[in-house]
Amino acid sequence: MSRKPLIAGNWKMNLNHLEAIATVQKLAFALNDKDFDRAEVAVLPPYTDLRSVQTLVDGDKLRIVYGAQDLSQHDGGAYTGEISGAMLAKLGCTFVTIGHSERRQYHGEDDPVVNAKVLAAYRHSLTPILCVGEGLPVRQAGGQVAYSVSQLDGALNKVTAEQASSIVLAYEPVWAIGTGEVATPDDAQEVCGALRARLAELYDGEVAAAVRILYGGSVKSDNISGIMAQPDVDGALVGGASLDPGEFAKICRFSEKSG
Length: 259
Ligand SMILES: O=C[C@H](O)COP(=O)(O)O
Known about the structure:
Bound molecules: glyceraldehyde-3-phosphate
CATH topology: TIM Barrel
Pathway: Carbohydrate degradation; glycolysis; D-glyceraldehyde 3-phosphate from glycerone phosphate: step 1/1; Carbohydrate biosynthesis; gluconeogenesis
Active site: 100 (electrophile), 172 (proton acceptor)
Structural class: alpha/beta
Enzyme class: isomerase
InterPro entries: Aldolase_TIM, TIM_sf, TrioseP_Isoase_bac/euk, Triosephosphate_isomerase, Triosephosphate_isomerase_AS
Binding site for substrate: 10-12, 178, 218, 239-240
């Protein structure tokens, strides 16, 4: 089964709504958006930018899709400061990142919370980009596969095979995020391959073959091609480099560079 590559830019807490408009316009121009078909290209702006991005994408009929960086596990009610899946769906979001290591680390999100958010995303027809990945001590102890697979297990409780077949996974070793320490292509393949094998055990080979698995952690235009050449890596979740539309467009053209 062929999986269309996905390159997603996680802007994190950067770019206000005016900067978001300028960035998406520049990205669309740099990609030659109307003709670009090598990969699905997504941006994941802060919540406050989403309406502006939606207006631009709809108005100019861009192929770029967009999503949010998080959502509430609840569907509505007295949850001050939270944003529901229904609100994101109404804004035309395709994706929502769930379980990013920065949410786990700074907001105490554990596997049950991540699982509840995955289920909330499916209730509102959003596609989760589920992030897993080990910190440096786990990597140094050689536990990266077991750790990442265990986060996957924790996130997929009560997720059906039909739902799971549409999920996007992102393997993001914490030690490689924002540090310039990119994992080697073999490092990325080791864990991405293990995640796919686990999907086959939890569900079946068809589900495992359908799921796109991204690598994230200091991805740049000069290291993307080696990562994308790995059989179980289907794209990238890009942080810092996604804030520069020219550089991000180059990352999205990985296959032209490697091919
Ligand atoms: O979600 C993206 C990752 O945290 C990677 O961030 P980075 O590309 O800045 O290392």
